[in-house]
Amino acid sequence: HAQVDWNAKEQFLKVDMPTSVCSDKAQYECQYGLVERPIVKNTRSDDAKFESCTHRFVRIEDSSYAVAVANSSTYGADTAPIGDYSSSYGTMLRLSLLSAPLYPDPNTDQGKHEFTWSFIADANMDSVLSTADFLNSPIIDMLPEVDPLFTIRRNSGLIALDWVKLADDCSGDIILRIYEPSGGYANGQIKLNKILRYSSIEEVDLMEMPVLHGMPISLHNNNDALNVELRPFQLCSLRIRIAS
What pLDDT digit, counting tens, does each position of 132-146 carry? Predict the structure, then answer.
């Protein structure tokens, strides 16, 4: 955690985290996916990719180990080999915290700021996503304990839950938004709470309208479950139609 009273001019504040992991590319989270940028620069095009926008984490890995840095709010991140290109012995991870240009706004970032980040060892994608969620969507204390409206069980791969919300049309229906975050195939099951056992589930688009290939799936009792299969980085929105 850092508290900064920023009064610099024409400077850029970064935090360095040296690692012993040697990799040729880094993964930066973007919306519902990952952007990969080269660490080792072989061309001018590679050299121009010196920094990437980073939503919640940056991750690097070799054939046997991975590390990552999750953050709550930064400009982005960059990676570079430690040592020269012929004898690299690790990778430097750097988060970009504050800037101070004179143009177009000479008062950019001036004043007090707070930042929080976590360094993740043995960073499989499951632990990275969990840490990123904890930093950006902390658990709210002092709420009553209630049973979840549904549960998601993974059979293989990763399934991330992004949103649970009421439908925009004020119908009382519930919208679930799930996606595959790591670039692989995933499948699992969604099981509704017993209070929703007479409801139905159908796939909808981002405007919460039924998709052409989607078919309503009725859950007649609490023992039924909806099987879900996701392609790499696939985003899926589901509408739980509440039974009257």
Answer: 999 998 777 888 888
